[in-house]
Specification:
This protein has a four-stranded antiparallel beta sheet. It contains two helices and eight strands, in the order ββββββααββ. The longest helix is centred in the C-terminal third of the chain and has 22 residues. The termini are far apart. By secondary structure, it is of the alpha+beta class. It has a domain of 81 residues: Class II Histocompatibility Antigen, M Beta Chain, Chain B, domain 1, CATH 3.10.320. It is extended.
């Protein structure tokens, strides 16, 4: 049975952009936000990914400053979001509003928390000295 999915974006005004056929009754539409920190908060990269089933079709990348289609499915949606200047400014601001803000909150119990690792190294088989041994860490 074929079903139809009306595609709306987050933060969208509610108008229908297009209708696409969906071949199964079950599908998964995801939005994933990601903050990448380099040298503390000195350099921060914000990514906002749109994923249909297990395929990323569009993303906002703060290093690019706008949405980019990853697949053909994402092309019309990326074009729409890039035309919304106020919305794009909000996404660009997420480096500070979302990433750096949460970094300050999480810093004390993630970044500052240091646990000394305990490692045991041993050979898989004991062989004469002239042979190489495969070492295993646990």
């Amino acid at each position: 049975r074929q079903r139809w999915l009306s595609e709306l974006g987050s933060g969208h005004s509610g108008q229908l952009k297009r209708i696409i056929p969906v071949s199964t009754a079950r599908f998964l539409l995801q939005a994933k936000s990601e903050c990448r920190f380099y040298n503390g908060t000195q350099r921060v990269r914000y990514l906002d990914r749109a994923i249909y089933n297990q395929e990323e079709y569009m993303r906002f990348d703060s290093e690019v400053g706008e949405y980019r289609a990853v697949t053909e499915l994402g092309r019309p949606e990326a074009k729409y979001f890039n035309s919304q200047k106020e919305y794009l400014e909000q996404k660009r601001a997420n480096i500070d509003v979302y990433c750096r803000h949460n970094y300050r909150i999480m810093h004390s119990f993630t970044v500052q928390r240091r646990v000394e690792p305990r490692v045991t190294v041993y050979p898989t088989k004991t062989q004469p000295q002239e042979h190489h041994n495969l070492l295993v860490c646990s």
